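Example protein was shown:

_____
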Amino acid sequence: MKPAAFRYHRARDADGAVRLLAELGEEAKALAGGQSLVAMMAYRLARPRHLVDIGGLRELDRLRTDADGALRVGALTTHHTVERAPDSLLGPGFAVVRETMRWIGHLPIRTRGTAGGSLAHADATAEWCLLAVALDAELHVLGPHGTRRIAAADFFLGPYTTALEPDELLVEIVFPHPAPYAAVTEFAERRGDFALASAAVVLDRDGGTVRGGRVALGGVGPVPLRAAAAERVLADGGTFAECARAAADALPEEGRGAAYRRQLIRTLVRRACEEADAR
C-alpha cells in the first residue's frame, strides 16, 4: 500500500519544529528516522496530513555521561550509535543500554532508527521503552512554553500513546542512575522480529548480596510494566527462580496465549536476573 497524501515540512532547529507542530495542530507528526512512522503510514494505520522532518537537527544527536553519573541520550541518537559507544563513555554503569541495542531489528534499522522516535512511538514491545521504565528514565520534552520533564512511569499511557502533547517534541532521555548489575532479555520467533515478551532486571547489591531490585516486563500489557510482586521477592531475599515465578504468576491467567506468555516471562526474568548477577 501507499501512504495517504501529506505535506512535507523540514525543521531547521528544535524550536522551529515546535512552532511548526503548534501551527499545524493534531494533523502533524514529527519524522525522525522513520523506521516506525513510515511503516505505519504505508499501511495507512497512521494518516498525518503534515510531516515535520527533524532528521537534520544535529543538536538532538548527542550521547554523553554527566559528572554526576547520569547518561543523557539525545532524541535523534541512533540505536547503532549507542551500540558502538565505547566503555569510556558508558562504563559499566550503563553497559546494559548498549547491550540492549543488539535486540533491536536488524543493522539497517539500527542505523536509521532513533531513541526518541522509538520512545515517542510507544510500542509496548520496544526495547527503549522497556529500558526507560526499568532504569527510571526522565524524558525531556520541548513545547511552546519551554521544557518539561516526564518520568518514564508517567510517559506511556497506552498502545502507541504517550503524554506528549501534539505541539511538543521529545528532545532528550536521561538515565539518572548507573545500573552496573542489569540485564535485558527477550524472545522473538526470528532474530530481529518484534519480541513476543521481554524482561529487564536491575539488581541492587551490597557486596555479594542482592538487597532488592527492579523488574520490568515488555509485551505483556499495553505499556511496559514494573513487576511489583517480583521486586518484593528480591527485597525479601528470595531466589531468582522465586522472583521469576512471582513475575509470571501476576500476569492474567486467561486470554489467548496467556499460559505460553507466563512461561516465557518466567524464563526471561530468571535469565535476566542471572545475567545481571553475573556482572
